[in-house]
Write a structure and sequence with these properties.
Pfam families: MFS_1 (PF07690). It is found in: Cell membrane. By secondary structure, the protein is an all-alpha fold. It contains 19 helices and no strands. Helix 5 packs antiparallel against helix 6 and helix 16 packs antiparallel against helix 17.
Length: 427
């Protein structure tokens, strides 16, 4: 891993921009990516409403759930495939292909009536709809100065969360008119994102280092050889297992303590409102911290917040616990999001970014199973388990995100291929 920071802590701190400076310094290509991603998230109805849509068409609940599971599996595959594709064909082209294909396939669902075909198409939509994510993150890294990375990823998360929060409400409104209309809008927003990315292609921006011919021989094995990065990925997995308990074990805990669905919805709304309104302000100060300490602090607070749920049943306790883990999310996530692009060799940037999504998706998948099993054994045990997993996650974060030694930097520099010549330099 390369050390691309400034020479001194004072220099790093002085270079960190404010929120306003970051917003003013975001180049046009990145605004296109942010706007396209926001529009796409606003129209991302498929995963949320697929089960309701299929049951409304007459499919059984189990069949609809199977289709949703196929979409989920496709989503994991799509992120990994997107990392490889973006390193080979370029970031902007990956977004164009990913979003255009997702839009066309989403539109086709309206005309499908055969269950095996619906399941297959849902899986392919999952692949296509998520393949853009490594490419969009890589664009953020390559199009902005390093000192802006943490803040730019906070802006990226704000756009993502705004779309994710408002999207379901828009979907419910469209459903009141027609399920078909909802999927038409979903397809249009995906294609709209593809057109935004096509502007980057036409202007010659967004290609990154993907045209390096030596990238064609690279694979995820190169990522797996980075032992420090594997520790970082382990931390992401453990944190995901802990974090997802707010959707699995927490509802059970609230019900056992005599609280209804309205209070649970209030806690989730509190989390969303804090992230959308406060994360940029938090990041203004968090970006001055060394990366590993920012992520370790964030991961630690997420675990502390989850562990506090054991102190219920008072409503105030649940509110305080939710505030604590939400603060941890705001502190650690922007830096953790920027880290893969910072430490990745340029010709592997897409794969490094995609690899960081994989352990989180696995954690989100197995976390509910682990949490509910622990809760059934003992309601308190799931929250104490969160504390133990968090302690391990903090430790591996501090080790995995430590600055590499001089020997490690030298080995990385020797292994990284030289940049491909530009057309003007080609004989």
């Amino acid at each position: 891993m390369t050390n691309t920071g400034h020479d001194s802590p004072e220099g790093r701190k002085a270079a960190r921009p404010s929120v306003v400076q970051t917003l003013r310094g975001i180049p046009g290509p990145i605004w296109l990516v942010l706007a396209g991603m926001l529009i796409n998230r606003l129209g991302n109805f498929l995963q949320i409403y697929l089960v309701l849509y299929l049951t409304d068409k007459g499919f059984s609940t189990s069949a609809a759930a199977f289709a949703l599971g196929a979409y989920g599996v496709g989503s994991v595959v799509g992120v990994l495939a997107g990392g490889s594709i973006s390193d080979r064909v370029g970031y902007a082209w990956t977004i164009v292909g990913s979003m255009a294909l997702a839009g066309l396939l989403t539109l086709s669902l309206v005309f499908l009536d055969t269950l095996p075909v619906v399941i297959a198409v849902a899986a392919v939509i999952g692949i296509a709809a998520q393949a853009y994510r490594p490419a969009s993150s890589a664009l953020l890294v390559e199009a902005t100065p390093e000192e802006h990375h943490v803040m730019v990823f906070a802006v990226y998360r704000m756009a993502f969360n705004l779309g994710t929060t408002a999207g379901p409400l828009l979907g419910a409104l469209l459903i009141s008119y027609s399920y078909d209309l909802m999927f038409y809008i979903d397809a249009v927003t995906s294609v709209g994102f593809a057109l935004f990315a096509l502007v980057l292609v036409k202007t010659g921006q967004g290609a990154g280092r993907a045209r390096d011919p030596q990238a064609d021989g690279a694979s995820y094995l190169a990522v797996l050889r980075d032992r420090r990065y594997l520790l970082f990925l382990l931390a992401l997995f453990l944190n995901a297992v802990v974090y997802i308990q707010h959707t699995s074990a927490l509802p059970l805990q609230l019900k056992a303590d005599g609280h209804g669905p309205t209070f649970y919805s209030t806690l989730l709304s509190l989390n969303a409102a804090m992230v959308i309104c406060l994360e940029l302000l938090f990041t203004k100060y968090v970006q001055h911290l060394p990366g590993r300490f920012a992520v370790a602090l964030g991961v630690g607070l997420v675990g502390v917040g989850m562990n506090l749920y054991v102190a219920g049943p008072g409503m105030a306790v649940f509110v305080i616990a939710t505030v604590v883990w939400t603060v941890g999310e705001m502190i650690g996530t922007p830096t953790a999001s920027a880290w893969p692009g910072k430490v990745a060799p340029a010709h592997l940037r897409g794969r490094y970014i995609a690899a960081s999504a994989f352990p989180m998706q696995i954690g989100y998948a197995v976390g509910p199973v682990i949490g509910i099993a622990a809760w059934q054994a003992s309601a308190a045990s799931v929250w104490w388990l969160c504390g133990v997993l968090t302690a391990v996650a903090v430790a591996v974060t501090l080790i995995g995100m430590a600055e590499p030694s001089a020997d490690e930097r030298r080995r990385t520099a020797d292994a990284e291929p030289a940049a491909a010549p530009t057309p003007a330099e080609t004989p």
